[in-house]
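Sample pair:
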Amino acid sequence: MVFSKLKAILGSGIQVDTLLHEKHVVPGGTLKGEVRISGAEVDASVESVEIEFTALVEDDSKGEDEPGAVHDYFKAEVSGKFDLAKGTAHPIPFEVQVPWETPFNNVDVRPLVGGMKLGVSTHLALDQALDKGDLDWLTVEALPVHKAVWEALESLGFAFQETDLELGTIQGATVPFYQEVEFWATEGEFHERIRELEVVFVVGEASTDVVFAADNSAELLAPDLNSTIRFSVPTDSADVVETVKAQLTQLAAQKGV
C-alpha cells in the first residue's frame, strides 16, 4: 500500500491522502485505491475528485539534455460534488481502468533502460478552485502483445537498447505522446540489412497496431515511407514470430537492402 499526500489548500486545512493498493499495473487493468479527505477547518464544498494518469515526456525540439515535461493523458472522476463538514473525514474508494495506451516500463518484472516515468496524481476541485497532489509513480507491465513482438525480435537477432516517450500523437492514438522502443540488429538474417529498429505500439482492447521504423532519420510523426511499416496483431497475441519476420522482410525490401 502506498500513500500520497496532497497539501492543505486555500487555507481550508483540508488534507487529501491517496492510498494505492498496488503500484504495479498493466494497460487495460484496474488501479484500485482510496482517496481520504479530512481536516477541514470550516465547512467546505468539494466539487469533484479525479485521478489523473501522467507521463514524463521528452521534447526533442528542446534538445536531449533538457528535462522532460509531465503530461496528463487520462482523467477518471472518482467522486462528484459533496459537502465536507468541519473536522470530518470522507473516504472515497475507487477502481479505475488503466488506459490501454499507457506505455510500459517493465517486462517480466525487469525495469527498462531509459528512465521513463509513469504515474498518477489526485486532482481536487474545491469551491471553484483546483489543486493537484504529488505524483505516485507506477510500474506498468508489458502486455502479451508487447512481449510477443519483443520475443519475436530477439529470436530474429535483435537486442533491446532503450525506450522513451516522445511528444506527439501517432495516427490512430489518442494520447499526446508515443513510446519508442529501440532495438539493434546484432545477429541473424537482418543483421546486415537493418541496423536500428524503432518500434511503436498503438494498443487497443482487441487489436494493436505495430509500427517498425528501420534506420529512420525522419520523425515517426512524418516518417520516410520507405523505412517504415505498420501492421496489426491481436492484443492477446502470444506468438508473432512469423508475422514479425514477414514484416521485417518487406521493410528491408522497401529500403532496397
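Residues 144-255 form one domain.
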